[in-house]
Amino acid sequence: MVQSKSIVLLLSLLAFVPFCMSHKIKGGGGGYLYPQFYDKSCPKAQEIVKSVVAKAVSRDPRMAASLLRLHFHDCFVKGCDASILLDNAGNIISEKGSNPNRNSARGFEVIDEIKSALEQVCPQTVSCADVMALSARDSTVIAGGPSWVVPLGRRDARGASLSGSNQNIPAPNNTFQTIFTKFNLKGLDIVDLVALSGSHTIGFSRCTSFKQRLYNQTGNGKPDFTLDQSYAAQLRSRCPKSGGDQNLFTLDYVSPFKFDNSYFKNLLAFKGLLNSDEVLVTKNQESLQLVKQYAQNNQLFFQQFAKSMVKMGNISPLTGFRGEIRKNCRMINS
Ligand code: HEM
């Protein structure tokens, strides 16, 4: 009798567990991500990240875009585990040398600066993966975009994956279907894809990332006719058929440093810079409808962007005893 009573009690307690955990995100390793993770162990953590990011963006306004992208390129490879920050060493082949990152990913020194400020106040407490998630949020806010509460408690990987970086991160000349599949494999849907692509409202691209569209879109020596032709002509003047590969172009020619919905307005005018931007309006009805909604309603874009960033930031985190808290974001602890 006593035994059956305690079983009933246990079962009813267990029934409440999902409610208690509903604001927490389960990570691999049995732990959870939650916003208050450092409240006791490093109460100044968020303030420190924010102030270093603000300083870095005031030195170099493009840095907001670069830090936002860094988090994306980290999360799509083995989850948000700071694997992208590791330099070549021993068995580690750095993701910094992958096709999407080489001569392109930037902001590593800012992450170092944040990490060393954190190490002074709370040594080996705040993970590099969390530093990236927080800096992506702070960068968005500084550029005029929405804010969100960042679930925390990610731990840092003890390895990198060059092949994962090459394969999982969408390329600008991938088809709509390929890009969509790469997002799906990370648990992200078409709404996330369109909203997160809205990141291209800030920052820059090199000529090499969209040159194909200007001269030889399908291999027959013809440009991409879905691109507005006067915009294309402007682009050609600084992105010639040969040379100029590293020349920089704004992803959103209207307001390159302001986080707003002009990216979506540009897409509807066929002035999206990358082929991967343009396919959102030319290859799929559902994504076209979403682009129209975000172009019309900035608030709606901001709300969805914030939700999708939290979702992206929750991709397979290392928690509990998995991974480690690196002392230096560029190398694993010895
Ligand atoms: C949908 C698939 C995506 C593709 C194919 C793509 C591709 C690219 C490419 C080719 C560049 C220019 C890189 C260069 O030429 O150096 C770029 C820049 C950028 N991307 Fe994406 N991207 C995608 C999604 C995202 C997402 C999901 C985010 C963030 C959540 C993001 C954030 C950025 C930012 C902020 C920049 C500018 C970075 C800077 O100025 O340093 N992108 N992207």
Automatic annotation (TrEMBL):
Record-linked CDD domains: secretory_peroxidase
Entry GO MF terms: heme binding; lactoperoxidase activity; metal ion binding
EC number in record: 1.11.1.7
Name of the featured protein: Peroxidase
Residues the record marks as site: Transition state stabilizer: R69
Entries under SUPFAM superfamilies matching the protein: Heme-dependent peroxidases
Reaction catalyzed: 2 a phenolic donor + H2O2 = 2 a phenolic radical donor + 2 H2O
UniProt: Ca(2+) 1 binding residues: D74, V77, G79, D81, S83, E95
Task of the protein: Removal of H(2)O(2), oxidation of toxic reductants, biosynthesis and degradation of lignin, suberization, auxin catabolism, response to environmental stresses such as wounding, pathogen attack and oxidative stress.
Binding site for substrate: P170
Predominant localisation class: secreted
Keyword vocabulary terms for this entry: Calcium, Disulfide bond, Glycoprotein, Heme, Hydrogen peroxide, Iron, Metal-binding, Oxidoreductase, Peroxidase, Secreted, Signal
Compartmental location: Secreted
PANTHER family per the UniProt record, alphabetical: PEROXIDASE 72 (PTHR31388:SF3), PEROXIDASE 72-RELATED (PTHR31388)
Residue sites binding Ca(2+) 2 per the record: T201, D252, D260
GO biological process, one term: hydrogen peroxide catabolic process
Active site as annotated: H73 (proton acceptor)
Sequence intervals crossing the membrane: none
